[in-house]
């Protein structure tokens, strides 16, 4: 696999979030997510634990009804079966996430 830069592109102008699977094996899936400005996602309730780190930008996550404001470099653990969603994202710079799904 060729190396990638997790922080490229600096700006993303897509209309919807972009999900890129970086690694997928029996226990772990790692994704890079690009969120355009003002993203408000659907509510997720997943069967696996999830750890997310905001690599770039600023964002708000709602986890089990509580709002968490994240800055670049901050991370959250979301236990399995916990309702969560993105409620807002910055546009300059674009939000870039690293998500680790643990089965």
Question: Could you characterize what this model shows?
Answer:
- This protein is mainly beta.
- The chain has one domain: Jelly Rolls, CATH 2.60.120.
- The protein is 0% helix and 51% strand.
- The protein contains no helices and 8 strands.
- It is globular, with a radius of gyration of 13 Å.
- 18% of the residues are buried.
What is the makeup of the main sheet?
Answer: 5 strands, antiparallel
Provide the CATH top-level class: Mainly Beta
- Estimate the helix proportion, in percent: under 10%
In the CATH hierarchy, the third-tier topology is known as Jelly Rolls
Low-confidence stretches: none
Neighbour order of strands in the largest sheet: 1-2-8-3-6
Distance between the termini: 23 Å
Compute the average pLDDT: 95
Proportion of beta-strand residues: over 45%
**How many discrete structural domains?**
1
The number of distinct β-strands equals 8
Number of helices: 0
**Rg computed from alpha carbons, rounded to a whole number of angstroms:** 13 Å
- Quick one: CATH superfamily? Jelly Rolls
The outline comes out as: globular
Alpha-beta classification: mainly beta
């Amino acid at each position: 696999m060729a190396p990638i830069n997790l922080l490229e592109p600096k700006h993303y102008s897509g209309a919807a979030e972009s999900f890129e699977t970086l690694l997928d094996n029996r226990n772990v899936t790692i994704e890079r997510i690009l969120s355009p400005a003002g993203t408000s996602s659907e509510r997720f309730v997943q069967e696996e634990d999830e750890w997310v780190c905001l690599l770039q930008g600023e964002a708000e996550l709602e986890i089990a009804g509580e709002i968490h404001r994240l800055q670049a470099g901050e991370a959250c653990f979301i236990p399995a079966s916990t309702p969560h969603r993105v409620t807002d994202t910055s546009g300059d710079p674009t939000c870039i996430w690293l998500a680790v799904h643990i089965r």
